[in-house]
Structures are given as structure tokens and as C-alpha cells.
Write a structure and sequence with these properties.
13 helices; alpha+beta; single chain; two-stranded antiparallel sheet; elongated; 406 residues
């Protein structure tokens, strides 16, 4: 019996019981759709994280004070004072792989303009901070080194601050807002960046000269953090190594002693987040694949029923010359076709499901070609694996007993 005849007979047999065939395929459809959707969404989330980190600057390097321990209690990074002006100058003057450096100091208070107010914080930075964090100005100007040297009371604000304070459509440029009790003149407005992957609003930001925040708000001489950018993404690790050497030298840390600072690159963050999302994707896909096994068992069960219902037909075909091999191939082809049709529908449904979910979550839509190819092969393997035993049972029936079967 040739392959074309096998396929025709298999389809004709399946069409005799359309409802039963559809219900049997449901397990395969759900299983394949779940695997496709989980893998696609996993890759979408990874790509979304990459895009978010890229928006922060792919070659950005964060330098933070090391966590402090007092009496066995972790005091966090904020209590440390290991980063200061000497470190900033050293990084600005003695590095080959660092393009820009900016300190950052934070202060929290209520922002007030007229009768409007907004709880927020002000970040004291250098002008190079915009390049490092990939911020762009929508209007106005960025403060300069003169503002740094004179502790100028000027600031650049994000779109969230504009929306909350300037509710009547006023032009923020040139207006004065109060940060606590200190007036700050708005000289620039940042272009919108939206939320990052962690849900943090990147537009809820006020930037001011770091010296202004140090002297007028915090009365400190150290920095909370240092931000740097490597000359290229490929040079990030070299830049981080260079920064480590310079800071250890500045802080007179002996060989073998632990650093009193932490350095994080975007590559490290991306690698960590990608590892987590990939692990979750594999875990979810593994859980979803359980339904494939259930679907395969459903195919085996229905093929057993089919063999029993068609016992007399099998006996009749054997009596007119059909070989055991022909009978086995007929039932095996029915099982494979049932599985493949369910697989194709499952793939289409999975792609649709992942598209809807990606759109709802505002993630990039990713089609996993490898997941589609593997799912298709799994469908064929499921049809063969779960259909082989019922097909073998049909092929081994005794023709005389089959003809007598009622």
C-alpha cells in the first residue's frame, strides 16, 4: 500500500467520527499551544529586558559603596561614604576605557509649584549624566560646569514632574519650583522614556548640579553613587577593571582585601536577568509539555477504541490479502495524522496567544522558529509513540477471530 492511499484511508476513517477526532486532538492542541506561547513569551520578556537596559545605556557602569556591616547587621549601601571627589577626579583624568563619569547624590522632599505638589526626589549629577543614561532634552538646556562650581539652584525635570506640577499647560522653562523650602529654577525638560522593566517611572526625575544637592540639601561631601560609561559596549569589562584598579589605589586597599565598593555593568545585569527569564521559560515550557503527554494518552486511548470497533473490518481486509504490515501502517498513519493536525492547529493558536499576550504586556512579539520546529517533530513523535501499540495490536489480530467478532 502506497503512502498516498494510506493518507486517504486515514483521513476518511477520521472523518467518520469528526467529533471524536476533534476531542482527541484537543489535548495535542492545548499542549502545543502552551509550549509555543510559553517559549515565545519567555523570549519576548528577555528581549524586553534587553531593550529596557539598552535605553539606560548598554555601556553604562554603576559604582556603589559596598554594603556596610555593623554588629552583624547589614546596613546597606546608603550608610557608606567611600566615594568622593578624589575618586571622581581620578576616573575623569586617569582612564583609557571610560568615556564619561558622573556622580549622583539623592535627596527626597515635596516638589511644589503654586497649589500643586508632588512627592519626589532630586538627583544631583554632572552634565555628562545625560549621555551616560541616554536621556535627551525635549526643551531648554542642561546645566553646565559653571552651575556645578557655583552651586546653582537650577534643575532639569522629567515629563511626570511636568504633568503633576504644571497642570494648566504652563511652559516649565524659566519657572521656579520649590524643593522642600529651597527654590529651584527649571532650565530644561527631558524627553519621555516611560517605565523600565521593573515598573519604575523614568520620567519622575529632577536633575540638579551635584554640588547643589551636596551643599544646599544634604550637607555632605561624598557621593551616593558614580555612573560611568565605557567608550564602547565591548570595552565595558576593561573599563570596569580599570575603575576597580583606580578606586582600590585611591582607597589604599591592600592585596587580598575586599573592595569597599561594588561595580555593576549592564552586561552583568543583562546576563543575570536573561538567565532568570530563560530558566522560567524552560520551567513553564516543561510544565506546559505535560499536557502533550496527556494528549498522547488520549490518542492511544482512542486508537484502542478504534481497533476494537473495526475488528471485523480488519479481519475482512486480512482475508482478502492485506498483510499485517498494511494493517499496522493504516492505524499508525491515522494516529500520526491526528497528532499532526492537532499540532498545526496548536502552533497557530499558540502564536495567536503569544501575540495577544505580548500586545497586552507591551512586550516585543517574538516568533520562536525553533519552538515551532520542535513542536512539529514532537507531534509526529507523539503520533508514532502513542499510536504504535494500538496499531501493532490491530496487526496481530487473528483474521478468523476478527471475522467472528460481534
Amino acid at each position: 500500500m502506497n503512502i498516498l492511499n494510506l493518507i486517504k484511508l486515514a483521513i476518511k476513517s477520521l472523518l467518520r467520527n469528526k467529533s471524536r477526532s476533534i476531542l482527541t486532538m484537543l489535548g495535542i492542541i492545548i499542549g502545543i499551544a502552551s509550549v509555543i506561547a510559553m517559549v515565545s513569551l519567555g523570549q519576548s520578556s528577555t528581549l524586553s529586558v534587553q531593550n529596557q537596559l539598552s535605553s539606560m545605556g548598554t555601556n553604562m557602569i554603576m559604582i556603589m559603596p559596598a554594603r556596610q556591616m555593623r554588629g552583624g547587621v547589614n546596613m546597606g549601601n546608603s550608610s557608606a561614604k567611600s566615594l568622593d571627589m578624589k575618586d571622581l577626579k581620578s576616573l575623569q583624568e586617569n582612564t583609557r576605557y571610560v568615556a564619561d563619569v558622573s556622580p549622583m547624590v539623592n535627596a527626597s522632599a515635596q516638589l511644589v509649584y503654586g497649589s500643586n505638589n508632588h512627592p519626589g526626589s532630586i538627583q544631583g549629577v554632572a552634565p555628562s549624566y545625560l549621555n551616560i543614561r541616554k536621556y535627551e532634552l525635549e526643551s531648554g538646556i542642561m546645566f553646565d560646569e559653571e552651575a556645578i562650581n557655583t552651586y546653582a539652584k537650577v534643575c532639569v525635570i522629567g515629563q511626570t514632574i511636568v504633568e503633576n506640577l504644571f497642570t494648566n499647560g504652563e511652559n516649565p522653562i524659566g519657572q521656579t519650583i520649590r524643593f522642600g523650602s529651597i527654590p529651584m529654577k527649571v532650565i530644561g525638560v527631558l524627553a519621555s522614556k516611560g517605565q523600565n522593566q521593573m515598573g519604575q517611572d523614568q520620567d519622575d526625575v529632577v536633575l540638579a548640579p551635584y554640588t547643589t544637592v551636596q551643599k544646599r540639601f544634604m550637607a555632605i561631601t561624598h557621593f551616593n553613587m558614580l555612573f560611568a560609561s565605557a567608550i564602547s559596549e565591548e570595552q565595558s569589562e576593561l573599563a570596569a577593571t580599570e575603575i576597580t584598579y583606580i578606586l582600590r589605589s585611591n582607597h589604599k586597599i591592600e592585596n587580598g582585601a575586599e573592595d569597599d565598593f561594588d561595580i555593576r555593568t549592564q552586561e552583568e545585569l543583562l546576563s543575570t536577568v536573561s538567565s532568570v527569564t530563560q530558566l522560567l521559560t524552560v520551567l513553564l515550557a516543561a510544565i506546559a509539555s505535560i499536557s502533550l503527554i496527556v494528549g498522547g494518552i488520549g490518542i492511544m486511548n482512542i486508537m484502542y477504541v478504534t481497533v476494537t470497533e473495526r475488528t471485523k473490518e480488519i479481519g475482512l481486509r486480512m482475508s482478502i490479502g492485506a498483510q499485517n504490515r498494511d494493517i499496522m501502517l493504516q492505524f499508525l498513519s491515522e494516529s500520526i495524522i491526528l497528532s499532526l493536525i492537532g499540532g498545526v492547529i496548536g502552533i497557530l493558536f499558540g502564536l495567536l496567544l503569544s501575540y495577544v499576550a505580548s500586545h497586552f504586556l507591551s512586550w516585543p512579539y517574538v516568533v520562536s522558529k525553533s519552538a515551532i520546529a520542535i513542536s512539529f517533530l514532537v507531534c509526529a513523535a507523539t503520533g508514532i509513540f502513542f499510536g504504535w501499540y494500538p496499531a501493532k495490536k490491530a496487526a496481530n489480530l487473528d483474521p478468523i477471530n476478527a471475522l467472528r467478532y460481534e
